[in-house]
């Protein structure tokens, strides 16, 4: 299988690494990422998440990282889903609190409302024939009022 070569990875690290950077390699062999680790990492000035893919990466890359992290004992398609799960903020944009709550009914409600808002913004014509319940109609009415 294909492994990630050293040189492109090291070139990328060189382009973004600063004296304040901590480079974390996402790997099944890493320390388990948990709440305590998330709090610890949130205090860093600059965190670089290095994601493996394909059949992994050239083992020499390990000598260029500061820490190794694992999301848990399960198989993912690569390091990208793990990195996305670890990030609650990106360039000042936070993951909505409801998505971090673990409350499935609230998450489903939020997703439905976001879908309705996107449709209202980009394709309001579709709402004329969409199967909307009373809660959807009430939410859309309030959204239209707030937009005015």
Features:
about 150 residues; three-stranded parallel β-sheet; elongated; two-stranded antiparallel sheet; about 20% strand; alpha/beta
Average residue-wise pLDDT = 89
Q: How far apart are the first and last residues' alpha carbons, in Å? A: 56 Å
CA radius of gyration is 21 Å
The level of helicity is 40-55%
H/E series:
HEHEEHEEHHH
The counted number of beta strands is: 5
Strand order in the sheet with the most strands: 2-1-3
**How large a portion of the residues is in β-strands, by DSSP E?**
15-25%
Low-pLDDT residue spans = none
Choose one word for the global shape.
elongated
The largest β sheet comes out as: 3 strands, parallel
Total count of helical runs of at least 4 residues:
6
By secondary-structure content and strand pairing, the structural class works out as alpha/beta
Structure description:
The protein is α/β, with parallel strands linked by helices and 148 residues long. The protein is built from 6 helices and 5 strands, in the order αβαββαββααα. It has helices at residues 6-16, 35-42, 79-86, 97-100, 104-122, 134-147, and strands at 21-32, 46-51, 67-70, 89-90, 93-94. A 3-stranded parallel sheet has the order 2-1-3, with helices on both faces. A hairpin with a 2-residue loop joins β4 (89-90) and β5. α5 packs across α6 (134-147). The radius of gyration is 21 Å and the shape is elongated. The N and C termini lie far apart (56 Å).
